[in-house]
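Input record (one chain):
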Amino acid sequence: MAGTTVTRILTFAALTGSALMGGVFFAYGNSVLGSLERMPAGQGAAAMNMVNVEIYNPLFMLIFMGTCLVCLVLAVLGLVRGGPGRWWSLTGSALYLAGVIITIAVNVPWSDRLAAVGPATPEGAAEWSRFLSHWNPANDLRAVACTLAVIAFGLALTRADGPRGGSPATRPAFMGNRW
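The corresponding structure, as predicted from the sequence alone:
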């Protein structure tokens, strides 16, 4: 029973962290980047560089990396222990971790490249254009991955073990008996 409680608490923490990060990525793509893109290249690049420095604050890192750690623990628990909702939990963990990998493999290197050139130079303007064409699609993927992770963690909390899993008493109401 205690293991189930810990798993549910961790799943709720992963759901919350995924929701917060998905919101950050969505807001970036939906508002911030569109605004910066409309600015003159040097100004947009300079503003993005400032945002990229500011994002490395303790609260952001706690949520971003803390959720990563929780997802790793949930993945191990799901593989070792099993239990109700484990496939949804594993799916949510994989989706959130995919967003972390995208961040590390794509977004951070492109941010570092942008910061390495003077934003008001012709090279800076060219780098800004390349940055937007690579960083934005990767950011959108992170937002989608986090959003799907939220859904998967929500389903894990309802104790449904996969699309056909669980007894009628443990399946979410919307799944009914047709599954």
